[in-house]
Amino acid sequence: MEKLVVYGGKPLKGKVAVSGSKNASLPILTAALLTDEKCVIEGVPNLRDITTMIRILRNFGMKVIQDGHRVSIDPCKYTSTEAPYKLVSTMRASFCVLGPLLGKHKKAKVSLPGGCVIGPRPVDLHLKGLRALGAKIDVEGGYVLAKTRGLRGTSIYLGGSFGSSVLGTANVLMAAVLAKGRTVIENAACEPELVDLAHVLLKMGAKIQGHGTPMLIVDGVRKLGGFKHRVIPDRIEAGTFLLAAAITNSELTITGARPDHMGAVLDKLREVGVQVQVRDTTMIVRKGNPSKYRSVDVVTLPYPGFPTDMQAQMMALLCRTPGISIITEKIYPDRYMHVAELGRMGAQIKMEGACAIIQGVDRLKGAPVMASDLRASAALVLAGLASKGTTEVHRLYHLDRGYDRVDQKLVALGASVHREKTD
Q1: Which residues contact 121 (CB under 8 A, 6 or more apart)?
Q2: Chain-wide mean pLDDT for the chain?
Q3: For 139-165, what is each residue's pLDDT tens digit?
Q4: 283/347 same-domain check
Q5: What's the order of all strands across the beta sheet hosting 155-157?
Q6: Is residue 12 located within the same domain as residue 31?
Q7: Where is 174: in which H helix or E strand?
Q8: Among all residues, which ones are annotated catalytic?
């Protein structure tokens, strides 16, 4: 394993380009399961999760060629419709193969998913939606066994205890595009990544209305073709760099972004007192004074609300913000594994149920810390950049799951960070 050694106190400066979206790329890769024709996806980030998904597709017998940020997929001849535990257990998004396998091949055996340790994330909405379409589903030995004689359109309500499900909506949507008749999905996810998937399916010949709204209307078609598509920029990576500039009191230019996907994050940063200018696909963070930042309350919500994937990074900034700030996690109430690690660096955080009460401190201090999940690792790196002394972020593989060469990008901006092997 590796750790990232971060020497704090150095301001950032320059330009950084945003990579393609991880959360858009993963379900789009699985959309290739719906066709017998070649598919080309551009702007795909080089990430651990992308590599895992490609391995899963190859496991089915698909020919997949990754050349830089371009992935070409030739369905070829399927040799399997099983997604094994050793692959699916490492990444939750891999469960998205279930819907397209059912829609195209009428059967699937998919391991229950793994991924980050951020609290319970059941797949009940996925299974509820697919059963409503006519699939017979059993769960045995940690696997979902699904089959159908033919999916049929119906009305499906996909509301859960914590709102809509992005992956659940993606799974049901990809099954519905080849189902007979009309499917109406209520309380569908509205996230930009889901909309990007819908754009791909439309290119393939699907008939979809309402993407980007809580109600999706899908008229099934008999066959889908190939596609060529460039994925949207990663709004979470862009937001992480915004916060990197804010927490280090730096001036930074972020290019190739989609500010229109980041309204809640930009609004909250401006409420804190961070100066951000938006020019088309470019965002410029002006050098400010963290001692004059203002405390805020943050509530994570489904899009267009403040994203849960930015909660940990925002907490790192609020640890350096004067006054008392409160973060309420309404998507994954247990997503606070980073709190104890930030505490090792001098942060003052008190937990009250799903709320984190943060008392800003004048300075954080470097310390050895352990990443528990993808976004927690990013938060610890941000805290390390703003700390006095040296921070060692262990279990770096979490960071590599979702950030494309982030250490190299930080070095190019003037940060002092490097990787080291651990015992």
Answers
A1: 92, 115, 332
A2: 94
A3: 998 899 999 999 999 999 998 877 889
A4: yes
A5: 155-157, 182-186, 215-219, 207-209
A6: no
A7: helix 166-176
A8: 116
